[in-house]
Design a protein that fits this description.
CATH superfamily: Tetracycline Repressor, domain 2
Structural class: mainly alpha
Low-confidence stretches: 1-17
Number of domains: 1
Radius of gyration: 18 Å
């Protein structure tokens, strides 16, 4: 899982009027800050407008309801940040990807995600947005890493979606969500070196 910054790609307005894409990033950043600060229940369209420094009409032209606003923001999370590295080795690629996850977990997107966790089971649209947005982005990025490793002959086919593949994020997410202990680059490196790579080496090509 993981989650986390929104892109600024222009998308069709839910209200029918073309968007000014230059404002999208500012608005979505404001949404993430407010979700982290007050949670989904207390979030209002007016508060988003105030936090983003735009008129309320700007918000309502883009989204009709609060759910639309949050779903749209979640759907684009991580698309600009989960850039698949290509260092020339599976270990280097995994290290960079895990460091990217650390940055998202510890940043505004991670804080916003934590605030939404209790809401998601009761809001199917939010759950779908997470599955088809940030979770899909990370799955695709990791799948590309494993595919490259197969092409280089570093690993055997079949690691994508396996338990071995899950170890690249599972321990970090567990620490983030359940223990409250720090998730930093040093921890990611320890997981990679003591858990992930020993398992990967058992599946070398």
């Amino acid at each position: 899982m993981a989650v986390l910054a929104a892109t600024e790609v222009a998308r069709p307005s839910r209200g029918g009027r073309p968007r000014d894409p230059s404002r999208d990033g500012v608005i979505r950043a404001a949404i993430l800050r407010l979700l982290a600060d007050v949670g989904y229940g207390a979030l209002t369209m007016d508060a988003v407008a105030s936090e983003a420094g735009v008129g309320k009409a700007t918000i309502y032209r883009r989204w009709r309801t609060k759910q639309d606003l949050v779903v749209d923001t979640i759907s684009d999370l991580n698309r600009a940040d989960a850039a698949t590295p290509d260092t020339g080795s599976v270990e280097g690629d995994l290290r960079e990807m895990m460091h990217q996850m650390v940055g998202l977990i510890t940043g505004p997107t991670g804080a916003a995600t934590l605030s939404l966790l209790s809401t998601i089971p009761h809001q199917p649209a939010l759950a779908d947005a997470f599955r088809n947005g940030p979770l899909a982005v990370w799955r695709e990025a990791y799948a590309e890493i494993w595919a490259r490793a197969e092409q280089r002959g570093e690993v055997q086919p079949g690691l994508t979606g396996s338990v071995v593949a899950e170890t690249t994020s599972a321990l970090m997410v567990q620490r983030w969500l359940l223990t409250g202990e720090a998730v930093d680059d040093a921890y990611a490196d320890e997981v990679l070196e003591t858990v992930v790579m020993p398992l990967v080496r058992t599946h070398t090509g």
